[in-house]
Amino acid sequence: MDEYQRVLTSECSNHVNEDVNLKGWVHRVRHLRKVSFLILKDRSGFIQCVLESKIAKMKITNESAVEISGKVVSTNQQENGVEIHVDNIKMLSYAAPIPFEVNNDEIEANLDTILNHRVLSMRNPKVQSIFRIQSKIVESFQEYLRNKGFTQIFTPKLTSQGAEGGANVFSLPYFGKEAYLAQSPQFYKQKMVAAGYERVFEVAPVFRAEEHNSSRHLNEYTSMDVEVGFIEGYEELMKLENQLLIHIFEKVKLACANELKLLNIELPELKEFPQLTLQEAQQILKEQFEKTSPDGDLDREGEKLISQYIEKKYLTPFVFITNYPTRKRPMYTMLNQNNTELTDSFDLIYKGVEITSGGQRIHDYQQLIKSLASKGLDLDNFKSYTDLFRFGFPPHGGFAIGLERLTAQMLNINNVREATAFPRDCDRLTP
Amino acid sequence: MDEYQRVLTSECSNHVNEDVNLKGWVHRVRHLRKVSFLILKDRSGFIQCVLESKIAKMKITNESAVEISGKVVSTNQQENGVEIHVDNIKMLSYAAPIPFEVNNDEIEANLDTILNHRVLSMRNPKVQSIFRIQSKIVESFQEYLRNKGFTQIFTPKLTSQGAEGGANVFSLPYFGKEAYLAQSPQFYKQKMVAAGYERVFEVAPVFRAEEHNSSRHLNEYTSMDVEVGFIEGYEELMKLENQLLIHIFEKVKLACANELKLLNIELPELKEFPQLTLQEAQQILKEQFEKTSPDGDLDREGEKLISQYIEKKYLTPFVFITNYPTRKRPMYTMLNQNNTELTDSFDLIYKGVEITSGGQRIHDYQQLIKSLASKGLDLDNFKSYTDLFRFGFPPHGGFAIGLERLTAQMLNINNVREATAFPRDCDRLTP
After folding, report:
1. What is the value of ipTM here, to two decimals?
2. HAMAP family attached here (chains A, B) (predicted)?
3. Do B394 and A65 touch (CB under 8 A)?
């Protein structure tokens, strides 16, 4: 795409004393007696434009889309060292008065207003930054895995059964049958490993019909799924996720320095994440915080406290919790060799919020059948899954990272909806 | 992820006279009197393993997952110059007799059998190659656009209305409301342009409740969507798509040389794609092939014939068809300045199949309202869309490429289901 005419605001300092053509939105305009100052924003940044004589009187509203031609002039009044002396402004698309102020440092409106007017709220530079960073997270996730021999997969979201069986599944009529929306690509990513790809990832929406509205739950979210064949054990998966997150943090730091600065976020240098067994974590909570945990799990408060403890002790916001009890994990989870009451599974907690579940999966047909039976599940319902394990299913495992949660935690966003372009919850199906 | 023990089959030639540890599947095993030859496959390729004495008698079935340790030995009998003299084989996962032969050059089974046993059919090297190439198509699509300043977006698949209004939409109950599955991210990608990102792309599933089963339709497919703000006209979009496809072809050629060779595909050197207005295309069909086209469109036969004509005349498998009539395009399509009966829209035909629809969109509020009214659409139903155009919506447009169709056409696959890992149609919701 040639844009022989257009120069980005961030490129102006390379065009001093030249005539340029800029396009973007009016971030702010200030009329003095004989001169007006207009801040133009485009996808690359901001620039001050100086309007004199007739043009200074032009009726221009904030957030209008405009094309500006003028001369780039050096100035020491501006951070980027240049401003535009405007010859002409062409109105591309006039903006009516906007319902709330988006160009202050922070939007002073409640979350519902921000989400209802998503296009306008994203014009705020801080809000805008969130989804630039999100895009970079996904880019670096994919980049790291591709360099490690992973294949990107695309698996169906319309399925004939829920992956975990039963609850929290959206269903819909499908040509005389009943279809379900995928809660996760769990079975499909396992299938792609067994199909010979060995190492696969997927970045795609998943759907959870959970009725509770909380600041960290969505009914539709983006799952970054990873599955790896021929592993030696689940420790390998934690190591992979650790390295992957180190890569993501480094890339985001480099590529989104401006966005992070704007959001006042300093990302830490990540090293090896500490690990605690669930039992150890529960004991620490009891001893250090007099906190009792629910059977075989941590609750939200527990996740927060254990994160605080780890942050203090190891100076890192991440901690793996491992070896959840067999009765609390799905039927496909690999049992621990030393204690079959426990599983070779893990969660990853980041700043007090679980952003990953993962683990090794059962690959032995007989063991899988036994596991299904011990969970009281009907073997017939899982036949199309279990049958595959008769044809050389290698040892394997994986994990999934919730993109919106990772974004929110990284940027100290309290409600995951703010890290979602167009969030879906029990009360929200628009815009 | 360290794999200090494991060496890939493709790496063996770097380890001559060393002991290595390999993991993979038994592609084929041939027992002679005192020796057995086993072809091992992993994600990187194939290697011959020589089994002598006791190991030669081991019961090994095709498609079992195994771990093999042995010595890498030079040989001029093998294409890669090495083979493995095996010390030990560990059975990781035993394969029962498979229901059809997957290790011949072609799978001799009908499409239903191939799709019903997807994991096994993908073990066939040719079938396996299809989805490696598909992954590379997406990688290079994303790479090209990111380098051009595009942001990757993630928009909801659960919506409160169909983007085009009405037909062919799946619907489902959603917490007391009715939700629809997105037929395309059309409105959302436009919104993200207007939100300030200017240039966005999305790679995500879309859902079409179309009842007809054809060799090129799916009820769920992967749409590679692109939307660009501040364009001068729709020609810019065609140029972008042209350059994008040149990049994709070059990258696939480089990275998937083995896969293409296996599939006997030679990808052409792409240049500038020819363009025909719809009217010109229809006239050529009439004059050259005595073929009448449906009103304001090409039918399937017409797309094939025009592709043949272009291939012969310009030696390229691609052709843009432009300026579809206003009455045949969605309400958001920009009208042509010189003739408002026509639109600034295009389709891209590749080897006789449409793989893209695109065009400039209306960005002027009044013009949009007029367009809705002229289509007889109820303004109230589109208020949440049209209202956005009051707040500085810049000139913009875009296109979408169907990933499975592009893959199928590139690889001379007749039925798009074969270019889909787990296809969904009116009769198929499994595996």
Report:
1. 0.97
2. Asp_tRNA_synth_type2
3. yes
